[in-house]
Design a protein that fits this description.
The complex is a heterodimer of chains A (about 475) and B (about 450).
Chain A (H helix, E strand, L loop, with lengths): L3 H11 L6 E17 L2 E19 L2 E7 L4 H12 L14 E2 L17 H16 L5 E19 L3 E20 L2 E7 L2 E2 L5 H4 L2 H16 L2 E2 L3 E7 L6 H8 L4 H4 L21 E4 L20 E6 L2 E2 L6 H7 L7 E2 L8 E2 L3 E4 L6 H6 L3 E14 L4 E13 L2 E7 L1 E6 H6 L1 E4 L4 E9 L2 E9 L2 E9 L6
Parallel strand pairs in A: 4-6, 9-19, 10-17, 16-23
Antiparallel strand pairs in A: 1-2, 1-5, 2-3, 5-6, 6-7, 6-8, 10-24, 11-12, 11-16, 12-13, 14-15, 17-18, 18-19, 18-20, 20-24, 21-24, 22-23
Helix pairs in contact in A: 1-2, 3-5
Chain B lengths: L2 H14 L4 E17 L2 E19 L2 E7 L4 H17 L23 H4 L3 H18 L3 E20 L4 E19 L2 E11 L7 H14 L9 E7 L1 H10 L6 H5 L20 E3 L22 E5 L2 E2 L6 H7 L7 E3 L6 E3 L3 E4 L6 H8 L2 E8 L11 E12 L2 E14 H7 L2 E2 L4 E2 L7 E4 L2 E9 L2
Parallel strand pairs in B: 7-14, 13-19
Antiparallel strand pairs in B: 1-2, 1-4, 2-3, 4-5, 5-6, 7-20, 8-9, 8-13, 9-10, 11-12, 14-15, 15-16, 16-20, 17-20, 18-19
Helix pairs in contact in B: 1-2, 4-5
Classes of the chains: A alpha+beta (about 475), B alpha+beta (about 450).
Chain lengths: ~475, ~450
């Protein structure tokens, strides 16, 4: 993508004012987004993202610059502009690049660019048909198809040179059910680090019907009772609770500066002994997987919590300096427009011994969150909130009735301690995670779990 | 190559490929940001970015494409991409390429003085944010954000029907977030400023307010669940308004995604509510002389004394409804297709100060922050259920901080039941979705879940 001499000359210029580490991240990305509303293909956009990011470290300091112009003349100019933020004497005057050859564990069979638009639209029509046909209460169905093909080159002044390709494909299904003046929507968004062969792996119709079923169930549901009581959170996308409530607090971004409730707690019991949690960027073709992270470090399986004991963090190069620890292959960014930092890849709570049936059967009263919406967290205080997009009341060991509008709030570290049952049905779901270094694809996951007590916000006073 | 040369080549290649009408939307920006941690420059970023959005009509339908580099390969990608995308469209929406308004308003959004402000001064400001925060209270354990930034963006739109307009804006921001600790308790609070007038940047005031608020939250506990009178402080009120702002879009209305459908001319809010979209606001965060389709912008009253007067339109929705575009076509970026968004969009302030609003409420809760707007609010139904914190008020006096609660309600009901509007109009952060503002609002009967 870039000649070696341009890369090394740019890095030497970047280090001309005392920087001790320089990095170049170049990307050339192609992508397509198609939108269908009520069966009518309304929008098609295809594009090319192209640019170069230059990063310089001096101790704990970091400077970042980016541009769309990859000419040698401009890169040297931008590198010097960034270097001007630092003070010192020139560092390296010679850099020898050694190409790191990465064996891909995310093979791509059907490249998006080789697939006709009409075939992509055909998948969307299948999803639309299945969702619409599910029930007469479905009044609107929006389908989004997207694919991206990101080609990156990463080089640094330690001599690393690596190229990687990330192809991702996703289908988004949003079904709206109406009853009188009321509307409820449900979203499903299966995706993977793969090409168009994604649609050989997922049952498009089943996913679409599930979105429709959820919307119809919720439009007929009563509001969730508010108060503090047990909550059963289902598997797959339910893992968003671990992602938000704990995962963000285990990112070096907040740990390194002592801003996380998990700072300084390695080796301590931070969760119920039933909890083992992992961030694994090496799962073949998973949505959040990458062969190398966005600093060129090979991704790996990082055990975060083992039987309740805090075992590790997710660490990027800059924070690794601050923490005097090794980077963990966890540094990610949305694009060349962002300096990378520690982020999650595919994060999940590991399978336990119970079954989902046992959990429900052993519960006197609880909110059963079958499907979660999104959520957010304040890493400094650990306070989180989540929307329950499909909820039910469990009474006397049985699912009693659907409820809607529930919100879960609490503190991540407390919730972890209160997990009192973990099922064996581990599954994952796909999300887009927004943080300092932009919006990135991540998998969340867990088996069905029970938390002994969470504050549930709803619209009804009693339970 | 430069954008004018690039435009010429793209249009020529488009003609050769059989494209019938074409438009480019070019944006170019310069950005600077810096972040201070423990008196050191912890983050420093400079960038120059550009991008070209392209749309073209082929076989009667319109397709989109975009690129970020102006080279030969990009010309082909734009033309082929837009053509391929046009060929799969089966929507019957009539999309017009606009030839230009008769006149465009003069709108102030660019301050040349700000452009020349040296980086050192911005760094000093961020350092001052941090040191002032530490100086204002011994319980400040860290300042997790002390940052400033600058952005300058120029937009250029041109099409094969003769439209050619450009507009330049700039602005700076400052952000401070303080963490205070007392025993095991940790509280945070932040203050932000967005302006293109550097005089508006007061580090001592911002840091002082953030710390004062954070310390005021120490010792917070929950409240019993129930129905409460609630003051939605101006920042919470504008966050809520901006979450539900799509209900005023004609596109949402026409697609059946807004419960305001069919309510033009009807009372949809309390008679004290007047809602304005004013793109001409001097140095407003979304001020502009033309919209995302090149239509001249103008000021509209969306709700007047509670009555719904207009939806926000672009050319496509206006044609469908048989009205004029309101100049609210938006391009969230050069990558995004034409949509609809408000500009400077705000609830007109009333008479009472924030303190008087507290007295007026009597007993209830002040909500100063809500969490989970992107997940716990449903713009289609208007329902929201959000994590929140603030203060408990008894007999017109704040008695203690409150945390670990959720407030739930419905946006449309809230509009209808606003009992009092404060005089303290404040805006949120400028975004492609508009620059949304509100004063503090008093509402009765919000459902609160706590202990």
């Amino acid at each position: 993508m870039l000649a070696r001499s341009i890369i090394t000359d740019t890095m030497i210029a970047a280090l001309s004012t005392g920087g001790d580490f320089a990095e170049i991240f170049m990307e050339d990305t192609r992508g397509t987004t198609l939108r269908m509303l009520n069966g009518s293909l309304e929008e098609g956009v295809s594009g090319r993202d192209y640019g170069v990011g230059i990063r310089i470290f001096q101790g704990y300091r970091s400077v970042y610059a980016y541009t769309n112009d990859a000419s040698k003349e401009n890169l040297l100019k931008v590198a010097l502009e960034a270097a001007a933020a630092l003070e010192g004497t020139p560092g390296l005057t010679d850099i020898v690049l050694n190409r790191l050859v990465v064996e891909t564990f995310n093979p791509i069979r059907l490249e998006p660019s080789s697939v006709l638009h009409t075939d992509k639209v055909a998948v969307m029509r299948r999803a639309h048909g299945a969702a619409t046909g599910y029930d007469q209460a479905i009044t609107q169905v929006a389908i989004t198809y997207l694919d991206t093909d990101q080609n990156v080159l990463i080089a640094n002044s330690d001599g690393l040179l690596v190229e990687d390709r990330r192809v991702r494909t996703r289908l988004g299904i949003n079904a709206v059910a109406s009853k009188g003046n009321e509307k409820q929507s449900a979203f499903r968004g299966p995706g993977a680090h793969m090409g168009f062969e994604l649609f050989d792996h997922i049952d498009v119709e089943a996913v679409a019907r599930d979105a429709a079923r959820s919307a119809v169930t919720m439009v007929n549901a009563d509001y969730a009772p508010s108060g503090k009581y047990p909550v059963i959170i289902d598997n797959a996308f339910g893992g968003v609770i671990f992602h938000e409530a704990c995962g963000h607090g285990l990112e070096a971004t907040s740990v390194a500066k002592g801003a996380s409730v998990f700072s300084g707690k390695l080796g301590q019991q931070v969760a119920s002994p039933l909890v083992t949690a992992v961030d694994d960027g090496t799962i073949p073709n998973a949505w959040g997987s990458q062969n190398v992270d966005d600093e060129g470090t090979k991704t790996r399986r990082n055990v975060l919590i083992e039987n309740g004991i805090l075992k590790g963090y997710m660490i990027d190069k800059l924070n690794a300096r601050r923490m005097a620890m090794e980077p963990t292959g966890s540094s990610r960014r949305q694009s060349y427009k962002y300096a990378p930092t520690s982020r999650m890849t595919n994060t999940f709570i590991c399978a336990g011994d119970s079954t989902k049936e046992e959990i429900i059967g052993n519960t006197e009263y609880a909110l059963y969150a079958r499907h979660m919406g999104g959520g957010s967290v304040n890493p400094a205080t650990g306070e989180f909130n989540f929307a329950v997009s499909e909820g039910y009341i469990v009474r006397n060991g049985k699912i009693e009735k659907p409820v809607r509008g529930g919100t879960l709030i609490g503190q991540g570290s407390q919730i972890l301690q209160k997990i009192d049952m973990v099922a064996s049905n581990l599954a994952t779901g796909q999300g887009m995670c927004g943080s300092l270094s932009g919006l990135i694809p991540t998998d969340v996951g867990q088996p069905t779990i029970r938390v002994s007590e969470i504050t549930v916000g709803g619209r009804k006073g009693d339970n | 190559m430069d954008i004018h040369e690039f435009k010429g080549k793209v249009f020529a290649a488009g003609v050769a490929a059989g494209l019938q009408e074409m438009e480019i939307y070019f944006s170019q920006s310069k950005n600077f940001s810096t972040r201070i941690f423990q008196k050191e420059v912890d983050g420093y970023s400079v960038s120059m970015e550009q991008g070209v959005g392209f749309r073209a009509r082929f076989g009667g339908k319109v397709g989109y494409s975009y690129v970020e580099t102006l080279d030969q390969e990009s010309i082909q990608l734009l033309v082929e991409g837009a053509k391929a995308n046009a060929q799969i469209i089966d929507s019957d929406d009539e999309i017009e390429f606009f030839s230009g308004s008769a006149a465009y308003p003069n709108v102030a959004a660019y301050n040349a003085k700000l452009e020349t402000l040296p980086a050192e001064e911005k760094i000093e400001f961020a350092k001052a944010l941090e040191s002032e925060a530490f100086a204002s209270d011994a319980r400040v354990s860290m300042v997790n954000w002390a940052a400033t930034g600058y952005n300058e963006t120029e937009v250029y739109i041109a099409n094969t029907k003769g439209l050619e307009q450009s507009f330049k804006r700039n602005g700076a921001y400052g952000l401070v977030s303080a963490v205070v600790r007392e025993g095991e308790q940790v509280k945070t609070s932040a203050r932000m400023v967005f302006s293109n007038d550097w005089e508006a940047f007061d580090a001592k005031k911002m840091a002082g307010e953030a710390v004062e608020e954070a310390t005021s939250l120490l010792g917070a506990s929950s409240v019993p669940s129930g129905d409460y009178s609630v003051l939605l402080r101006h920042d919470v009120a504008h966050d809520l308004l901006s979450t539900f702002v799509s209900v005023f879009s004609a596109e949402a209305v026409q697609k059946g995604l807004s419960l305001l459908a069919g309510k033009l001319g009807e009372q949809v809010a309390s008679s004290i509510v007047t809602l304005i979209d004013d793109p001409l606001l001097e140095n407003g965060g979304a001020s502009a002389s033309f919209d995302g389709e090149g239509v001249a912008t103008r000021t509209k009253t969306v709700i007047e004394n509670g009555k719904l007067k207009t939806f926000l339109h672009n050319l496509k929705t206006a044609k469908k409804d048989g009205v004029e575009s309101t100049g609210n076509a938006s391009r969230a970026s050069f990558k995004a297709p034409v949509g609809i968004s408000p500009t400077n969009f705000f609830i007109q302030p009333g008479e009472l100060s924030y303190e008087d609003m507290i007295k007026r409420m009597g007993d209830g809760l002040i909500i100063i922050d809500v969490q989970g707007l992107h997940s716990g609010a449903n713009p289609v139904s208007g329902d929201f259920s959000l994590g929140a914190y603030g203060y408990l008020v008894e007999k017109g006096q704040i008695v203690r901080p409150v945390e670990q609660i959720t407030v739930a309600g419905n946006f449309f009901t809230l509009l209808e039941t606003v009992e009092e509007i404060g005089s303290d109009l404040k805006f949120g952060r400028p975004s492609p979705g508009g620059y949304v503002g509100s004063p503090t609002l008093l509402v009765r009967h919000l459902s609160v879940a706590g202990m």
